[in-house]
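Dear colleagues,

For the upcoming journal club I promised to circulate an example of a predicted protein-ligand complex. I picked one with zinc ion because it came up in last month's discussion. The inputs are reproduced below in full, followed by the predicted structure.
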Amino acid sequence: MVGTSEIEPKSGSAGAAGFVVSRAGGMTGTPTSGDDVAGLAGSLTGTGWSEQAAMPNMISRLRRAILQSGLICLLTVSPGLAEEFVCFVYHRFGDDRYPSTNIAVDAFRGQLEYLRDEGFTVLTLGDALVRLDAGSLGGPTAVLTVDDGYDSFRTGALPLLQEFGMPATLFVNTNSIGRRGMLDWDDLTELLAQGMEIGNHTATHDYFLDLPPAGRSLTFGEDVAQAQGTLTERLGQAPKLFSFPFGEYDPDMRASVERLGFAAAVAQNSGVVSSHADRFALPRFPMGGPYATVDGFKRKARMLALPVVAREPESPVVAGDSAPWLTLRVVREGISLHRAQCFVAGASACSLQVEADADTATLRVHGHEPLQGRRTLYTVTAPSTSGPGWHWFSHVWVRPRTDYGATIRKLGK
Ligand SMILES: [Zn+2]
């Protein structure tokens, strides 16, 4: 179980309902399940949309302004208006040679049965975002995304999606299309005809953060544009959505994707997509390896978004192994923040400080141990005040390689 927690009055916060929650404990036993939190520590990795894109841009600027001003509670937020949907990411189906990125076909069937039986509407990511912007989701909604374009999608997932009448959004890296074990162009054309959505996952699927910062976003942008040109030519339509390889990005790469005209991008921080989510680093719950179960899926499908309206830092990239502080500004309404919990994947303990004001609260999180591995996820969960649901937010930290020479040689630059 999660260890001790203490709630203490915060000194020097006159007039504010400030308090500090400190946590010792770790990954297991939470009612919201830290299971997939641990999972992400491992190997896991447009046009015509301008009107819809305008609002997230405004929100993004507003977030920056709030962070830069350092002011508390400037924003009047109406969380009740925030519709949301849950998004999952899969890689392989029924291919147990690669257990960390695979889901058994029977488990996938069980997940689709759950969505059907519970009355979920399953949409492509593009359709779900249009409805989110229009405020017309109307009920529980799920999106199934599939990265990398493995052929096991066609053999393991497609028959079930056809049986249940559900779509999926696939993100493909163009240099791999048609290779052994991968979908080919005829497959992708047929999938489009069947109502599946195809998105851009770069040409090379490289670790772009391993490139030197100078020129990194240029190389990345060229790769994405090359993939976009190929996809547009071969499929007869330009993908509107993008998926960062390994879920890794920095602010310049994120800006490149926005500048190239995509409507949205997905990363691999877990969480629920709401109007508060970063439109160019949307969260997805992973469904691979030990986390690809029916029970785990049910918990995630019912998760609620923790409405984060600002965060500091915005970049996932960190140097060194010191566990950084993450600061979040969260809309308070309907959320029991004094019961909030933090989790740091791969670490045994973390601290969470909460300072509340009238409408929002500032949450500060940091791990107690040095970062391990390439990617580390911080997750904050808090129960709803009005029902059994839990709110969820996660932020991924990435520690790139710094021996740039090796990376440049590998990429042939
Ligand atoms: Zn990928």
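Two points we might discuss: The CA atoms of residues 67 and 310 lie 7 Å apart. Confidence is low (pLDDT under 50) at residues 1-82.

See you all on Thursday,
B. R.
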